[in-house]
Design goal:
This protein is an alpha/beta fold. The protein has helices at about 5-15, 25, 40-45, 50-55, 55-60, 65-75, 85-95, 110-115, 140-145, 170-185, 235-240, and strands at about 15-20, 100-105, 120, 125-130, 135-140, 160-165, 185-190, 210-215, 230. Helix content is about 35%, strand content about 15%. It folds into 2 domains: about 1-30 and about 85-120 and about 165-243, TPP-binding domain (Rossmann fold); about 30-75 and about 130-165, SIR2/SIRT2 'Small Domain'. The strands form 2 sheets. Strands 3-2-1-7-8-9 form a 6-stranded parallel β-sheet, sandwiched between helices. The protein has a 3-stranded antiparallel β-sheet with strand order 5-4-6. It is globular and about 55 Å long.
Length: about 240
Amino acid sequence: MEKIERFAQLINQSKNAVFFGGAGVSTESGMKDYRSEDGLYNTVKKYNVSPETILSHSFFEAHPDVFYDFYYNYFLNTSAEPNRAHFALARLEAEGKLQAVITQNIDGLHQRAGSKNVIELHGTVLRHYCPACKKEYPLEEIKALRGQVPLCEKCKRVIKPAVVLYEEPLDEKVINSAINAIASADLLIIGGTSLAVYPAAGFIRYFGGGNIVLINRDETGMDSRATLVFRESIGEVLSKVVI
């Protein structure tokens, strides 16, 4: 039996499939990943400080002007649209074959493709709020500033994206939701992630089901545990499975 046929069989036999994804899911939409040779961390040099540093809580507090210039250019100033992988996952959910999408991405493309139960480990660019008074600001209002520092109209504090920056903990409720979804799954589909970012990657250890399908360009530490391993693009694999 060919691998694609076997993958489709696993999905059809599953009672509780869950998808766990990373930056590779969105690269087919034109979004840069982080750690690859042409990713953000290795190609963005113009700020004279690493993107990893810019995306830290302390840098956001100390240099909101640089943070928002970077954030606008690489996260908001994009024409990215959901790709084949996003639409395939949304369809699997609509057909009752996928219970949850757990994502390390912050781009909101899963929701735009139609997925409903999306657990965003690192938050989302779709929401922005004032850390002081908690007033929320719509995405379009932040985008309209074109990288300028947004200030709360009520208390004049710098508005923050609802994303988890370096030096910040993951939300406890989100953590519990992800762990519960993985622990109850009988099929875990992992795509577009090196499984090198912790603590998120560590959640995989809670999986006790029968089958793991791994779709990733490069080798991961989970390959030996996987029932099936694909090196093709996520969109290509999932679009063949979801017909």
